Amino acid sequence: xxxRERLESGVGLSRRRLLRGAIACGTSAAxxxxxxxxxxxxxxxxxAGSTREYWLQAESFLRSVAPSNHDDLLGRIFVPEDSTYxxxxxxxxxxxxxxxxxxxxxxxxxxxxxxxxxxxxxTIVIHFRNNDTHYRFPHSIHVxxxxxxxxxxGAWIASRQNAPGTCVLPxxxxxxxxxxxxxxxxxxxxxxxxxxxxxxxxxPVMDISTQLxxxxxxxxxxPGAPRVDVEHILYFHQLYSSDIPSLAQDFACLxxxxxxxxxxxxxxxxxxxxxxRIGALGQEFYVFHLHGHRWMSNGENRDTEVLGPSTTATxxxxxxxxxxxxxxxxxxxxxxxxxxxxxxxxx
Length: 347
Known about the structure:
Helix content: under 10%
CATH architecture: Sandwich
Order of helices and strands: HHEEEEEEEEEHEEEEEEEEEEEHE
Mean pLDDT: 88
């Protein structure tokens, strides 16, 4: 897992400073992120052409990549201070950021952020507030798959550094507006696309905020799509010790954690209509493999899906395989780097 060249010089941050502060939106919430069908951002009786509003906030919090301090695959032990860092994620709030939505169902953030949902014809409005109290970096939201104007792109570049919505400073807010068209149907990523930063004192890193956790998925179903019983949200992503000084090594992560028993345990029952929505960011390519299962993809039976940077996979099937199964990346360096979890199916 070689790390690419960095950009020009940036701001330094010591290893020990990364480990100071309070924990918010942290390990215990992330471990409970066993996603099921979500109603977040949706109406109970949806009308085509509705406006869906989301209130998201960027939050910094202390995060353990391996909270059990153990790797069940190879039997390795981790020292907490070598696998802990200050993360940043998107957290969902009630209107006007009155109060954070509960994390227990894994639907309100923070790694990955909340699922943004819509139907063809909808308008999606995301009110974003930057509350990154640790790093105090500027942040933004950039979406894939939806229709928007340049004022709602969220992508910062130095030659247009004052473009609206691309560099939301701490304590500031911005509202993004998008349209959902027929070409938006599918699973898409969203992520921070603001000014590059550095934690090490070296050159800024283009994707440091997304490494730290600022990403999520967008779910747009076609008209008349069957409702699923269980939906699993899964993200493949990397943490590089060259970019995050408090980490003693690189970690290959699933939803912000690495290695059994730290990664999410997903659940389903025989007979359930199951959907996996899977995303990836960064520079790596991944191969999602689910033991004991097959599904149809482009007219073929498959048990793997290949994902590259900013790509997604949507997998649907009727559950018929009771047992305790592994899911993982089949690339061996990613597998031993942490990308393995468990999927439990009851009869």
